[in-house]
Write a structure and sequence with these properties.
Number of domains: 3
CATH architecture of the largest domain: 2-Layer Sandwich
Oligomer: single chain
Shape: flat
CATH superfamily of the largest domain: YebC, transcriptional regulation domain
Distance between the termini: 24 Å
Largest sheet: 4 strands, antiparallel
CATH class of the largest domain: Alpha Beta
Radius of gyration: 18 Å
Helix content: 40-55%
CATH topology of the largest domain: Alpha-Beta Plaits
Length: about 250
């Protein structure tokens, strides 16, 4: 599919490691906290909070951890005050990178992000330089063992927009507002859902054929994801599986 994100596939495959070290849950808790602070703690009246809670549940975050984050957000317990910022940049090969952060220290985070780009041959960009090509979409990955007919029928009946094969997985695209509803319907149909998220997808895909560029792009993405203030990283690169295996 045009505009897909290779990084979405890579993040899915490395998700188990993220969970194991607690990074993913810490970031989800921060997102829930901010959503509750901005719109209140009622998931029925706060659409952003509902989306964050569904995202956390899909990642198997516990109810207690979710409730604690909501309480911090509405002031029932103490918590830091976070600012939401989006940074933009270019990785090697002209690859666009969009970074969403929640930080309690803008200067520290900006310095950290800039350092990552500089270290691996990229550069920060002005606001709007790359963001225009990204739009929010729902992305669901299914186990590739399911038949194409079963996936197509179930996905379209559940309200999905598009179905494609991505390596050894099926990738389902949806409107971002219904991604978790579609996930629940796919679960109910007996298909094995691997992951589901509302993410940013680019309309312009850059094919990366240089191994050094590929290696440094992946290093930039990993280093950004590993930063506690960075909540999500989106990009528009596509690296051939053969090169992916060679560069690790």
């Amino acid at each position: 599919m045009s505009g897909h994100s290779k990084w979405a596939t890579i993040k899915h495959k490395k998700g188990a490691a993220d969970k194991a070290r607690g990074k993913l849950f810490a970031k989800l808790a921060r997102q829930i906290e901010v959503a509750a602070r901005q719109g209140g703690g009622d998931i029925d009246s706060n659409a952003s909070l509902r989306t964050m809670v569904l995202k956390a549940k899909a990642a198997q975050m516990t109810k207690d951890a979710i409730d604690r984050a909501i309480k911090r957000g509405i002031g029932e317990t103490s918590g830091a005050s976070y600012e939401s910022i989006t940074y933009e940049g270019y990785a090697p090969g002209g690859v666009a990178v969009l970074i969403d952060v929640l930080t309690d220290n803008r200067n520290r985070t900006a310095s950290d992000v800039r350092s990552v780009f500089s270290k691996f041959g990229g550069a920060m960009a002005e606001p709007g330089a790359v963001g225009w090509q990204f739009s929010r979409r729902g992305v669901i990955f299914l186990a590739g063992s399911a038949s194409e007919d079963d996936v197509m029928v179930a996905a379209l009946e559940a309200g999905a927009d598009d179905v494609s094969q991505d390596g050894d997985l099926w990738k389902i695209m949806t409107d971002p507002s219904v991604v978790y509803d579609v996930k629940d319907k796919l679960d109910a149909s007996g298909l094995e859902v691997q992951s589901a998220e509302s993410t940013m997808v680019s309309s312009n895909v850059i094919d990366v054929t240089d191994k050094d560029d590929a290696r440094n792009i992946l290093r930039i993405m990993d280093a950004l994801e590993d930063n506690d203030d960075v909540q999500d990283v989106y990009s528009n690169f596509d690296i051939d599986e053969t090169i992916m295996q060679e560069v690790g």
